Amino acid sequence: MSESDMPDWEKRFRAPRVSLPDWAEDAPDRSLFVSNATGTYELYAWDRASGEQRQATNRPNGTTDGLLSPDGAWIWWFDDKDGDEFGVWRRQPFGGGADEEATPGLEPSYPSGLALGRDGRTAVVGRSTDDEGTTIYLVRAGEEPLEIYRHAESAGVGDFSHDGSLIAIEHTEHGDAMHSALRVVRPDGSTVAELDDTRGGTEELGLEVLGFAPVDGDPRLLIGHQRRGRWEPLVWDVVSGTQTDLTLDLPGDVSAEWYPDGGALLIAHSHKARSDLFRYDLATRELTRIPTPPGSVSGATARPDGTVEYLWSSAAEPPVVRSTTGEVVLDPPPANAGGTPSMKCPPSVPVSDAWVEGPGGVIHALIQKPAGAVGPLPTVFDLHGGPTWHDSDSFAAGPAAWVDHGYAVVRINYRGSTGYGRAWTDALKHRVGLIELEDVAAVRDWAVESGLADPERLVLTGGSWGGYLTLLGLGTQPASWAVGIAVVPVADYVTAYHDEMESLKAMDRTLLGGTPEEVPDRFAASSPITYVDDVKAPVYISAGLNDPRCPIRQIDNYVNRLAARSAPHEVYRYDAGHGSLVVDERIKQLRLEMEFAERHLTPTATAPTD
Predict the structure, then answer these.
(1) Are 420 and 251 in contact (CB under 8 A)?
(2) Which pLDDT score, from 0 to 100, does residue 568 have?
(3) Residue-wise DSSP of 475-497
(4) Please, which contacts does 96-105 make with residues 24 or more away whose CB atoms are closer than 8 Å?
(5) What is the rounded average pLDDT for all residues in the chain?
(6) 3-class DSSP assignment, residue 228
């Protein structure tokens, strides 16, 4: 199909795009980014001085996990098998050359963080396995890896100090995988300092590592905390113990990173599904807005010359890497060696906001619909994953495709979503899934009563946690939905728990208060398979055969129950993990989903298949 014949929804997937470039701390002209220019998401090296771009990885199922060494000499990338997230770190020279195993002596594992030293030969490597829990190693070239941390609960590498003398670790030794504590250790594993906001209070509060100061001998660690009911940054001197609270007068969640001289912070502010940037001077405590267009900034970095580069988009406008100089920082590489101009990404329509009274407070929903359309419309309720994530006013090709086909799209930041305060995010415990669906039901009722949505043509869909909520919603709210489309979902919670990667088991124990054997009633109440016989709507499920997050066996259990009563359903299984990095595969999946919805929103529904 020629580009002129291709529908806009497909062009949005095929149009080459780039991530925010990561740059080497001691060689800032060397950068690393991700692009789908070849039709598969891969890592690219970019020499800013010469302008040369080079594809660094080339694997059938794509590669997105990579890191540039501080000296710019090496590209580290994670090598798993077909998206199963279990593998080893490899590295290759920035200018090209053979890949080599970066951490000899360490067996394959799930990754639990990586930090690279400025000496070019040292790394801090986090690993997770079902048998060992979390282990963290100091790896030096030519030496045996040194274990500096081990615990059965989930943990991860936070950061490596500028001079290599301090290592920050996020851990959940207290058993709450939603709220980390911090430990700073020396390279031999001995403890320097501890910070744990889960102790001594009636509520457990989380901490996160944002990064050490980029100055030799500077023991300041930038961290995020939740002490005032939302994420905010503070500066912790890990040697003296001094904590400098920034007390920024900004609503919503606030994160930060260092400017390269260590004298200021780049503030990322998220509120009501939009985001913006500020510069905070640590000496004067002056907060200065950095102009950005309305929409969402999904990543930002301060460069050595004081400029800021950021990845921006809105629901209507495709993503672009901008600079405070006013320039576009990086165009996608050409799709072939001949330099054919890249396909342009068509815009979509803007979102509008809906604020709906719900059982746990006001719910924020984002609405898109075809330009000029008047309801009631067939409507897709597209539930985000996470659950600790949120939908925002940012570009998404999937919702835009549904709009192109005449649907309204409603995205809901239900309880559990980030960006609306800690209490909203933490509300999920014990009645997992059911709480979120109370909010979905409230927004569904609003959409129908407002005249936006046709109650006979409502599609419930989502991926990952959103796929889980889809299956749970079809069973617990069977009269509310005409079609269900679940992408890489949890379908049988008990089987999923036993088969999933260890870090997700820890999260499930936190959410539900124990293991399936310890709290069987809670797992049963929150499991879609408990309600599978009540499902009335036709169900479409897509699943990755190598998915460690929502494994295939538990999905097969659910599908077998549908098949046993001849319930209308279709299943699509593909050879990848928790989603695909191949553009053709993404297009195929969405096309199948839209075709399924179209068939079952008419009176001539097809027979069930598997």
Answers:
(1) no
(2) 98
(3) HHSTTS-SEEEEES---SHHHHH
(4) 96/45, 96/54, 96/56, 102/74, 102/76, 102/139, 103/137, 103/139, 103/145, 105/139, 105/144, 105/145
(5) 95
(6) coil
Do 319 and 309 meet the contact criterion of CB atoms below 8 Å apart? no
Core vs surface per residue 438-469: b (16+ CB within 10 A) or e? bbbbbbbebbbeeebbbbebbbbbbbbbbbbb
Consecutive H or E run containing 525: helix 520-526
Rounded to whole angstroms, how far apart are CA atoms 414 and 470?
13
Helix, strand, coil percentages (3-state) for the chain, rounded to 5, are 20, 35, 45
CA distance 286 to 310: 21
DSSP state of 324: T
d(CA 529, CA 476): 11
Give which of 280, 221, 207 is closest to 247, Cα–Cα.
280
* Unique residue bearing structure tokens 């070849």: 38
Give the end-to-end CA distance of the chain in Å, rounded to a whole number.
30
CA distances in angstroms from 282 to 117, 235, 476, 597, listed in the order given: 26, 10, 51, 54
Tokens matching residue 288: 């200065």
- pLDDT band at residue 331 under the 50/70/90 scheme: confident
Residues 6+ apart with CB under 8 A from 339: none
**Which residues neighbour 252 within 8 Å (Cβ) at sequence distance 6 or greater?**
230, 269, 270, 271, 272, 419, 420
pLDDT, one tens digit per residue, over 190-225 is: 999 999 998 765 567 999 999 999 999 999 999 999
Q: Are 408 and 373 in contact (CB under 8 A)?
A: yes
Contact 461, 422 (CB under 8 A): no
Measured CA to CA, the distance from residue 236 to residue 244 in angstroms comes to: 6
CA 522, CA 434: separation in Å to the nearest integer?
Answer: 11
Report the relative pairing of strands 274-281 and 264-271 from DSSP bridges: antiparallel
How far apart are the C-alpha atoms of 190 and 337, rounded to whole Å? 51
Would you give the distance in Å from CA 9 to the centre of its chain?
Answer: 23
Strand partners, 232: 225
Contacts for 99-104: CB closer than 8 Å, 24+ residues apart = 102/74, 102/76, 102/139, 103/137, 103/139, 103/145
Beta 569-574 vs 243-245: how paired, if at all?
unpaired
With 60 as the cut, is the pLDDT of residue 609 above it? no
Q: Count of alpha carbons within 13 Å of 223, Cβ hemisphere only?
A: 31
Is the pTM for the entire model greater than 0.85? yes
Distances (CA, A) of 437 to 104, 390, 434, 509, 558: 47, 15, 5, 20, 20
3-class secondary structure, 427: helix
Comparing 131 with 43, the larger pLDDT belongs to 43
Q: Given phi > 0 = left and psi -120 to 50 = alpha, else beta, which region is 293? A: beta
pLDDT in tens, 135-175: 999 999 999 999 999 999 999 999 999 999 999 999 999 99
Burial 554-581 (b: 16+ CB within 10 A, else e): bbbbbbebbeeeebbbbbeebebbbbbb
Residue with tokens 């939740």: 226
